[in-house]
Amino acid sequence: MLNENIKAIRKSKGLSQEELALKLNVVRQTISKWEQGLSVPDSDLLIALSKALETPVSTLLGETVAESETDSVKAICEKLEIINLQFAQQKEQRRKVLHWLFLLLCAGIAGVTAFFAAVSSPYFGWDYRDPELAVAGVAFHALEWFFIRLAPIAFTAAAAGAWMTRKK
């Protein structure tokens, strides 16, 4: 794919991301995003990239067939459109997964809170002369104490995350 080809050709030419970025008048992070597959260069930058790497655009895009100049630009546009569509689908899928994870976290926090409310600190009635019950009581109390203090913060953060990842 495009990202792997950019990285392989850049390394085979002995260029760092910084050096390639200077040749293209972009920042190093842009090259990194292209190589990680997080974004793609537009058609102008793709042509400049092919010149900087001294490689045909068709090779960058994974093709080996030589085409005429106008067909080449049209093919580049079509391939970039397909790649952008794939990135958009991946981004939407990540958004959905994050949204449901935030909702599950909210439900989990609410469930544990309901559990603690239902059991109503049962360790208060335990006989602490037994060392095993004393350790269990202290552990249960510590768990409950930390949870009650951290749950509102975690619930608020998870609710905010669910709100921010909702479908707009």
TrEMBL record:
Domain HTH cro/C1-type: 6-60
One of the Pfam families matching this protein, by short name: HTH_3
Molecular functions per Gene Ontology: DNA binding
Keyword terms of this UniProt record: DNA-binding, Membrane, Transmembrane, Transmembrane helix
InterPro entries, sorted: Cro/C1-type_HTH, Lambda_DNA-bd_dom_sf
Transmembrane annotation, as ranges: 100-126, 146-165
Keyword Nucleotide-binding annotated: no
PANTHER family linked to this entry: TRACRIPTIONAL REGULATORY PROTEIN-RELATED-RELATED (PTHR46558), TRANSCRIPTIONAL REGULATOR (PTHR46558:SF3)
Protein name: Helix-turn-helix domain-containing protein
Source organism per UniProt: Candidatus Ruthenibacterium merdavium
